[in-house]
Design goal:
Two copies of one chain form a homodimer. The first copy, chain A, is α/β, with parallel strands linked by helices and 345 residues long. Chain A has a domain of 240 residues: NAD(P)-binding Rossmann-like Domain (Rossmann fold). Helices cover 38% and strands 16% of the residues of chain A. The first copy, chain A, has a seven-stranded parallel beta sheet with strand order 3-2-1-4-5-6-11, with helices on both faces. The longest helix of chain A has 22 residues. Chain A is globular and about 55 Å long. Chains A and B meet through helix 5 and helix 6 of A and helix 5 and helix 6 of B.
Chain lengths: 345, 345
Amino acid sequence: MNKKGERMTHTTRLNGKLTLVAGGAGFIGSHLCAALLAKGDHVVCLDNLQTARPSNLRELESHPNFEFVEADITGPLPASVADRAHRFGRVYNLACAASPPQYQADPEHTMLTCVVGTSHLLRLAEQAGARFLLTSTSEVYGDPEMHPQQEGYRGFVNCTGPRACYDEGKRAAEALTFDYGRMGRAEVRVARIFNTYGPHMNPDDGRVVSNLVCQALSGDPITIYGDGSQTRSFCYVSDMVAGLMALMESGGDGLQPVNLGNPNEMTVNELLGHVLALTGSTAAVEHRPLPIDDPRRRRPDIDRAKALLDWEPRVPLAEGLAATCAWFAEELGGAGGQPMVAAAE
Amino acid sequence: MNKKGERMTHTTRLNGKLTLVAGGAGFIGSHLCAALLAKGDHVVCLDNLQTARPSNLRELESHPNFEFVEADITGPLPASVADRAHRFGRVYNLACAASPPQYQADPEHTMLTCVVGTSHLLRLAEQAGARFLLTSTSEVYGDPEMHPQQEGYRGFVNCTGPRACYDEGKRAAEALTFDYGRMGRAEVRVARIFNTYGPHMNPDDGRVVSNLVCQALSGDPITIYGDGSQTRSFCYVSDMVAGLMALMESGGDGLQPVNLGNPNEMTVNELLGHVLALTGSTAAVEHRPLPIDDPRRRRPDIDRAKALLDWEPRVPLAEGLAATCAWFAEELGGAGGQPMVAAAE
């Protein structure tokens, strides 16, 4: 998809360095790729397309500085990446199924993606002399007893339950990443991502925003797990991508994780109210039991991100949710190409 | 080391099934191999000899039902194991460096041993239809805020620190093991081992019993980390081995971890008093700073093990410590073969 001349011009300007985005075809990954391209990076997107939707990349494929490589990071990195190891300057690791039904479908693969996949990418970064960023998760806090969650909180995670493949996988990936950093094997950054929403979410992934919006739009009964009083804090995807890029380029030794998310906490019932108002849906609400180990409250303390990155979320919920509903409406309507970044940007 | 005729007779009696002990050349592993052989098992001991001492196997090598295979479980299992996969009836996974200086020397290898190694052995158990036992650790509780520690306690573990490669590695190994159990891929058992001591400890591994005993015996100054008021609960190795074997053969679905250890809690200073009395040492005591994330208190709640396994430790500290001192005295004196199981049995 690239003409050699164009790529040379570009990579020369960036000292020939490439940016790897593992999981780049996923929800957040595809927005990150778009933002990196807009900044002038040459992006190599690595994805196994396990949970990603190829349509997420539709608008990127024709970009002269974008390459897509289909591969699973639990195996050896493909030659098209490994043979150019020395050319990578930045390695973003966003690769892992992130919604419970998806990461629980093959829990061993989830764990190996977190641990073996991260190990493979850290070795690449070490070989390349590249900076590495791990996208960890608020799930490392489990069902938190500290509120809001600060990075120093050690979490309340059940390591024997059905969510552990992801929660403990990510905790293990953090441990591995910080070991590389402490030993000077690579410059590292670790983001703990809280709930994020926006266009390119998978309609079927079982996350609360996509569930509610898709059900409201389709007129299906709306599923609320538990009584809906559990809280989440929702960050629009453009804010999240800006935070990830700021963290990657930040100074310091990188040996501390950084929460990224929107501290605007609300109950699931409140979110439902917004969705119903936006979509005009009058669908019935069906309650189902809370999943095992489902966290009751989630809200990031983002003081560290503010201080370190001069970053905080800017997109109000009403605006982000309108853009998300508009995108899902087109998506569910079976329409063709959607704008890569929706109105809320 | 085996004559084919002997092995056939034996394995026929046990329906041809073999018992795999990964990490079988280590401290606890070597005692477990001896006890399994005494029970009549045909034992295949797999070890990379990273932290194990080959001399631990001295008395086993000539046993007709014992085989040693040198291999690292982070890689594919060796043909001598994989080719006989269907013959294994029991798989014990004790493979991992377990003392901080050793597991921190190559933290990535520690993590991969826990996760990739456990995955390889679980796959073997699945293929074999064998029952699998993971030796997890009290370290999954971190620096615990609940005392004594019950299995339902979620722990207080720092997933970003220098102990995380082991603590989080074991938590990840538990997650993986319980996923195999829940999915019906293998029958699983998980033991959380608390501090254990006895002959075959590595004099250099930095654990408190071996440190104190070796320093007292050699007349070197005795190192106490912190003020010595931190507590541990020490289980003699023969009790631990009995607990592991009872857990492996126990009924139930195996989907809950089981603490194994001795609830006889004491401060490190109290332990030192016993060691000085036993050895007659008058060496000076040197205090050093506590390592990062060192747990302040450790004591297992073993109600679950008592109820499920009808097991509890039987060897009093004075007896176990005398046997341990006697063994170290011979070992440090450079003497030849030691008795496989010391007087305390």
